[in-house]
Amino acid sequence: MTQPTDKAVTDSAEGLMPLAHDRLNAQPFPLSVSVAIFWLSFMCFVAVVGPSLMPYAFTAIDLKARLSLPFTSLHWLGTDELGRDVFSRLVISIRISLLVSFVATIISATFGTLLGFLAAHYRGWVEQTVLILADFQASIPFLIFALAVLAFFGNTLTLFILLMGIYGWERYARIARGLAIAANSQGYAAAVRQLGASPIRIYLGHILPNTASTLIVSMTLVFPEIILLESGLSFLGLGVQPPMTSLGNMVGYGREYLTRAPWILLAPATTIVLTTLSVSILGDWLRDRLDPTLK
Predict the structure, then answer these.
(1) 76-294, what's its fold?
(2) What would you report as the CA-atom Rg of the chain, rounded to the nearest whole angstrom?
């Protein structure tokens, strides 16, 4: 009986590696990830088409129906202290909270990534300035900073979104800087540079696509933090201002009726918990899937 040669063993192992890789990629989503994706998809659906399905205007007042119990034919989630329909207000709150969190996350990621690439490209005093600004941003209690800005400049939805967009940019800057420095030392970036490509083309067309997975994972980690920050500021009365409403705004108003009408607070609070938990679960799963050191 002949023994297999080393080359045959090697060829056999190389043939099995793609098969194992395909099986790994063919694995179904874990149950927790599937539930998280379903919930986030449902929240996006509510934010987009929910207002057209609201039974009442979210600002409509009916004092005769104030503090009505939930699960009735007229008010699915009950009413608040002014007789406003909680379900209608919850739909608008989901839209506003997701809008603020999503736009703020995009602003933070874009600003931080841009500064990180600038630091990696120019090095020297530019890099030191970016790192000092990142350290300064990380050392400031952002909630106190936000309270000071909103108290001094007033509060509009645009200013509030821009303020939320400042949160967390230093994380993207550090990550983008490190990844860009590593990419510049690798062959593909140097080869494109030798062909005469401009720095913008190198960073946006080659380095950014190769570092996007790590940045996307970072976005999924910052996104729930911005949701909670927006909710906290709205809870304190310095977030989204009436007549507009948000999830934190609803929790803030509902705390005074926790013993008499807990449904006013429980509906938005449950939405906040489930949404942030779903984004965190999805972020952890993406980190495990996109991290090349785990493959």
Answers:
(1) MetI-like fold (1.10.3720)
(2) 25
